[in-house]
């Protein structure tokens, strides 16, 4: 499928991207020895997680990345965020990019919530003044309250995720990559996250959203791309994309 034609200037360009993973197979010592004697390669093979994927996302567009388990959605988001490098093709992005991908990965258990907010905002590209200006909003959104000065290792897993998510979503950004936000926190907090994401979409931020929750996808996204076994099989209106995904 060719590149989608977009009217606005592109925020994300994914150009004929391929990503391979090395699969290691465990073998007995005997099998490994026999393979060595026979000069055969043993122990690994490659697996194409993404193959010839190509699309553009225009500034301000909200696009869903759909597909069954293992189709390559998270791998695609990691390539766009720069966590992974493609083996072929290229990925270009314009503007400040924030990823709700491995939320909380930069948190340090021995630091307080407050210290972690500053640390993570810095990792996400904010300077001290910018973080100070948003600090109260970040804490209010997380509902951590008086626990903000406690060491994060004493937080419950839900509290930890709420603070991490709150930092990630309040940073200055042009492009937001969202991977399964609905696994964050309890139902009221998830609803709040969805509202915040809709607000960012309304403000004209570019979004790429991975979720298995189709009603949320329909609320946030107008367009959907569908991956099947690492290949892009559909790019178009979100309702049609959901249908295309369900057709096996
Ligand atoms: N680091 C890795 N090493 C080896 N294989 C990997 C690695 N990361 C992903 N894969 C494989 O690549 C394929 C695509 O994985 P990916 O996580 O992108 O799928 P997904 O569409 O996000 O799936 P899900 O809906 O289950 O989250 C899977 O078969 C997975 O096993």
Protein model, in words:
By secondary structure, this protein is of the alpha/beta class. Helix content is 36%, strand content 27%. It contains 8 helices and 9 strands. The strands form 2 sheets. A 6-stranded mixed beta sheet has the order 5-6-7-3-8-9, with helices on both faces. It has a 3-stranded antiparallel beta sheet with strand order 2-1-4. A hairpin with a 2-residue loop joins strand 8 and strand 9. The two termini are 18 Å apart. Adenosine-5'-triphosphate (ATP) binds next to helix 2. Belongs to the ABC transporter superfamily. Pfam families: ABC_tran. It comes from Agromyces atrinae. InterPro entries: AAA+_ATPase (IPR003593), ABC_transporter-like_ATP-bd (IPR003439), ABC_transpr_TagH-like (IPR015860), Bact_Polysacc_Export_ATP-bd (IPR050683), P-loop_NTPase (IPR027417).
Compute the number of strand runs. 9
Mean pLDDT, nearest integer? 88
Computed structural class: alpha/beta
* CATH classification class: Alpha Beta
**According to CATH, what is the topology?**
Rossmann fold
Bound molecules: adenosine-5'-triphosphate
User: Mind telling me the CATH superfamily name?
Assistant: P-loop containing nucleotide triphosphate hydrolases
CATH architecture: 3-Layer(aba) Sandwich
Helical content stands at 25-40%
Number of domains: 1
What percent of residues are in strands? 25-35%
Low-confidence stretches: none
Domain ABC transporter: 29-248
InterPro entries: AAA+_ATPase, ABC_transporter-like_ATP-bd, ABC_transpr_TagH-like, Bact_Polysacc_Export_ATP-bd, P-loop_NTPase
GO molecular function, one term: ATP binding
Family: Belongs to the ABC transporter superfamily.
């Amino acid at each position: 499928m060719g590149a989608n034609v977009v009217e606005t200037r592109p925020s994300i360009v994914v150009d004929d991207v391929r990503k391979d993973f090395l699969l290691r197979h465990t073998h007995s010592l005997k099998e490994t020895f026999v393979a060595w004697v026979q000069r055969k390669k043993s122990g690994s093979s490659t697996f194409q997680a993404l193959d010839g994927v190509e699309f553009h996302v225009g500034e301000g567009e909200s696009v869903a990345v759909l597909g069954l388990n293992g189709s390559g959605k998270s791998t695609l988001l990691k390539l766009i965020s720069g966590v992974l490098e493609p083996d072929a093709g290229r990925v270009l992005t314009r503007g400040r990019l924030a990823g709700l991908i491995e939320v909380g990965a930069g948190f340090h258990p021995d630091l307080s919530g407050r210290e972690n907010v500053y640390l993570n905002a810095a990792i996400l590209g904010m300077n001290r003044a910018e973080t100070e200006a948003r600090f109260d909003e970040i804490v209010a959104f997380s509902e951590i309250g008086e626990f903000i000065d406690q060491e994060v290792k004493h937080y419950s897993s839900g509290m930890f995720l709420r603070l991490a998510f709150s930092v990630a979503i309040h940073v200055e950004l042009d492009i937001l990559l969202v991977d399964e936000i609905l696994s964050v926190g309890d139902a009221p907090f998830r609803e709040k996250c969805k509202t915040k994401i809709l607000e960012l979409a309304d403000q004209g931020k570019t979004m790429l959203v991975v979720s298995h929750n189709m009603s949320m996808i329909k609320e946030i996204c107008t367009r959907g791309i569908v991956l099947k076994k690492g290949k892009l099989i559909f790019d178009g209106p979100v309702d049609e994309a959901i249908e295309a995904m369900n057709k096996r």
